Amino acid sequence: MAHHQGVTCSFGASAGFLKSSCLLAATLTFDFQQSTTSLAAAVISIMTTHTEDSTKKETPSWALGVPTKLIRKVNIIPEAPDHLPVHTLTFAFPDVNHENFTGPAVHHSHVRLDMGDVVKMVIPGYKPKSYSISDLRENEFDVTFKVYPNGRASGFLDRLQVGDHIMSFGKHASRTRNPGAYVGIIVFGVGITEGYPVAKAELAKGTAKVKLLWASRTRADTFWREELQQLQEAYPDNFEMVYLYSRETVEGCLHGRVSPELLKQVFDPPLPQEARFLSVGTKPMMKDVDGMLGLIGYPMPQHHLLPKH
Ligand SMILES: Cc1cc2nc3c(=O)[nH]c(=O)nc-3n(C[C@H](O)[C@H](O)[C@H](O)COP(=O)(O)OP(=O)(O)OC[C@H]3O[C@@H](n4cnc5c(N)ncnc54)[C@H](O)[C@@H]3O)c2cc1C
């Protein structure tokens, strides 16, 4: 899923460097004998060596990431014939100072969930792939992901075992916040991993009204329903959750697909000029939603909650 434009990094690595970085990543993933600290020190030293040896167009050293240890793995949607599995992986913050990250890479503790920042998971032999951080605690962070059939990145994450390391780094999404009293969030499927943290953050910031529309195929494709219910209870006047299912009719939920009419029905801000929107899904889905919002009186980018800068 491509939640947002332009955050996926493209790699122009030379064969030689790619090979050594894969080897390094593989070693770091499977050698559990060493401590994270010594692994991190090794990576930083290799990053430095690489910077000295490489030619301009090669993989930037900042994109190698640092060893990041998986400490918990929880299945939240089991695999079934009619839906794909979803897991939450909890990683410990890498034991590396923020100052050791260069370029656009940042330490995981610097990722801003309210701004839609991401963590880049460096998939060995492939490339860094973006994942929203679904929760950030004092010394650890969560990534919640759907496992796609033959998915290179999601398949690799799926095969990680507790105690394994993966190379990763944080990255700002280069967005600004365009405040408004009314925030509408439209998420498709696993896009809730960004939509829910942003909704929580907006409520914590005192946004008068936050409405979250979650479009899924069926109820079984959704998760965190209890957490979302708790958020509703914590902010009875400020938060509203709307479930929309395209392949199932469920009492109290909408049925159908996202359309201009549906968006008009769900989002009815008292002061339209105060309305801000965020959509999370594949690039075409987000583009479609922008078009639909434009049709019903919310032209973009004026009404974006988190426009790119
Ligand atoms: C900013 C950003 C944040 C993201 N956050 C998350 C997140 O929090 N959780 C998460 O699970 N993913 C997230 N993604 C998507 C993630 O980066 C990968 O694209 C996703 O895991 C699929 O990669 P893959 O290599 O496993 O699949 P690929 O090898 O790219 O594809 C494997 C198969 O799955 C299909 N497929 C891939 N993506 C989708 C899709 N979205 N819908 C339907 N079919 C698909 C492909 O068509 C192909 O057939 C995010 C993407 C971006 C850009």
Protein architecture, described:
The chain has 2 domains: 15-171, Translation factors (Elongation Factor Tu (Ef-tu), domain 3, Beta Barrel), CATH 2.40.30.10; 182-295, Rossmann fold, CATH 3.40.50. Mean pLDDT is 85; it is low at 1-56. The chain has 309 residues and is of the alpha/beta class. The chain starts with 14 loop residues before the first helix and ends in a 14-residue tail after the last helix. Helices cover 28% and strands 26% of the residues. The longest helix has 18 residues, at 36-53. Strands 1-2-6-5-4-7 form a 6-stranded antiparallel barrel, surrounded by 4 helices. A 5-stranded parallel beta sheet has the order 11-10-9-8-12, with helices on both faces. A hairpin with a 5-residue loop joins β4 and β5 (128-136). It has 7 helices and 12 strands. Flavin-adenine dinucleotide (FAD) is lined by residues 1-4, 7-8, 118, 129-132, 144-146, 148-155, 190, 193, 282. Keywords: FAD, Flavoprotein, Oxidoreductase. InterPro entries: CBR-like, FAD-bd_FR_type, OxRdtase_FAD/NAD-bd.
